[in-house]
Records
---
Amino acid sequence: MKSFVPSADNSAFSLANLPYGVCSDAPDPSPRPGVRIGDHVLDLRAVETAGLLRNTTLGQERVFDASTLNHFMSKPHTAWRSVRTRLQALLAADNPELRDNAALREKSLIPLSRVQMHLPVEIGDYTDFYSSRHHAFNVGTMFRGPENALMPNYLHIPVGYHGRASTVVLSGTPIRRPSGQTKADADPAPKFGPSQRLDFELEMGVFLGGPDNALGEPIPMDRVEERLFGMVILNDWSARDIQAWEYQPLGPFLSKNFATSISPWIVPFEALAPFRVAPPAQEPKPFAYLLRERDVAEQPAAGWSYDIALEVALATAKQPLPQTICRSNHRHLYWTVAQQLAHHSITGCRMRPGDLLGSGTISGPTEDSYGSMLELAWRGTKPIKMQSGEERRFLHDGDSVVMSASCRSSDGQTRIGFGECVGTIVPARG
Ligand code: MN
């Protein structure tokens, strides 16, 4: 399907993608939902005001006259599909409704270069998982040796912790180096000061939508897709020295709560459907609540991993040109997004539209696919060599981490872009 918007068809933001975000521009500084098409943004508030979304399942209801996507996300998944289908039609080359309406086109189709992006969702709860077996194995090896690398629960439970929604920030927001308590093994006592082991974690974030499950009512595997709205790139900034001292027995706390960055565009799961792949085989077989009806009989649990190529690049004050330091893929996750959601809610935990689930660091099996600096530089023993001649064990002030993600069909015809998730480290507060 072709679009009348110039440059859209051959881009990673064609009609096959249509990710949602929230933007504003100089003529109208009020943040409002939009959908990205090529190097333009379609203003959804303007399109809805013009009555062009009335023949969707939304009918007369206004969901885009808002500064976040929460209202739209709270509608049933059938409404997301209906709106997406309608937007694809409205932007299609052979549809005159918007194409030939010069006034509305001028008002609603804004060049990307003119817009400012905002946090797209008011995030209710943020949970971060630990679902890459390679990452868990690497970190476990560093701390306990390869024989005891995986904790005994790892192959049974999608492990996670409850994170901090209030500090999820949009790509581009500067990241202040946190201060906290640290204690190296050799130190007799803890000390307080700026973190010396600031790290990134390459993750994908899943935004939930759909009407709440009632308190006490789990979301079964066969119905998870009613709740999976879309995905973003997520950087779970981590202060490793603070983490090492605080994490036992209750898990990460201040080492993670100072910032989590996300990319501005939420790619709908419908756009990712062609890139669904089987996750790694799961042995031992998970409990039935982590399998779909038909997976109970067959393995592996097909279909909830995605072939999304991921990259991390690093720039420094001395070397402004980002250098790729990691190439990974979403398909390396051991536990799938579906299993994460089924597990999260098996107690009857209420999951609300606008909740965010982090995948956990997505490390692959090879040394160049490790999704954190802790692993890439192997706890500081193998520093990353920059083209500038600098070395990095952990992040310095002035360093920028640039994460990107995209899908590409095997024939190269379809590309789905996520854009970038960027953050630059600024010095700790004096
Ligand atoms: Mn994490």
---
Amino acid sequence: MIVLGIETSCDETAAAVVDDARRIRSNIVLSQVAEHRPYGGVVPEIAARAHVEQIDGLIRQAVDTANLKFSDLDGVAATAGPGLIGGVMVGLVTGKAIAAAINKPLLAINHLEGHALSARLTDDLAFPYLLLLVSGGHCQLLLIEAFGRYRRLGTTIDDAVGEAFDKVAKMLDLGYPGGPAVQAAAERGNPDGIDLPRPMAGRQGCDFSFSGLKTAVRRLLDNNPGLPVEDVAAAFQTAVGDVMVDRAGNAIAMAQASYPGLTHLVIAGGVAANSHLRQCLDVLCRKRGLTLAAPPVDLCTDNGAMIAWAGVEHLAVGLSDPLDTPARARWPLDPDAKPMPFAGKKA
Ligand code: KG4
Ligand code: ZN
């Protein structure tokens, strides 16, 4: 079974071909970082236009690289949400057109499900497992119980963690995108002696909050001009790591209450590239008898392979979607999860 995957929900235009033997036959990602850099963040209108300009050539390249013809495909998977709606529409409509032209099923994929299932592509992981999804748009802990059964244990009540990295990078004049720049600065810095809060740490449950931490960094900089940028970056990254360990620790306890034999915590999303975070979570997992599964960085960040793989999993159980399936800006993975009061500024 061979599936084409299309991803256009944020600022990466991506297409990939994956098969049911977990082989990634092609995986092409075009980043729009250069287009958005002058604005210090993703501009939805620019993103949608850039997807339109690139998507057809990119898909052709993905199919060619896989040494296939369109007629060799068994299905076409495209992200149908959540995300920036203009971009999602570009990818979904393109996927529908290809599916119609080759008369093969359309798989309308939830972007979060793509991240959630990617560890099954890279690590052949069995259900259930715990997922920490940390990106520019999301910060969630999910219990991945079975295909189609995803229980949200916690989420952010304000900003996503990647957003916090990007905003702190801006305050420190480290450029865009901020996460990698903060990490690089933090590696040269010393967090000792800089006191930043650990929002939500010690509380029940496993929700996150980052706006207070962001404000604390702002105040710290205002009150202490001349503080070395590297030390502030290190203090911020340490605070984020501590919060993640606290929240993930509670999530592990909640997950183990339902599944005493739980074996893995998976991290995905762009912030999963952060090596300090990986290190802290690895220590936590070892303490709790779990293994940390971290897909390679290029499969943690947005990509088409995870969408194609989710399509493979859908097809394998006989699921497909009609051609009038709408694009959705908001689409929680757990239908029972309550909407958070302030979350979802970026889907
Ligand atoms: O998953 P992603 O590529 O796109 C979405 O947001 O969906 O994640 C991008 C986010 C950005 O906020 C970026 O600053 C952050 O991931 N990021 C990092 C690192 N690399 C990327 N944050 C911290 N440390 C990193 N090494
Ligand atoms: Zn993503």
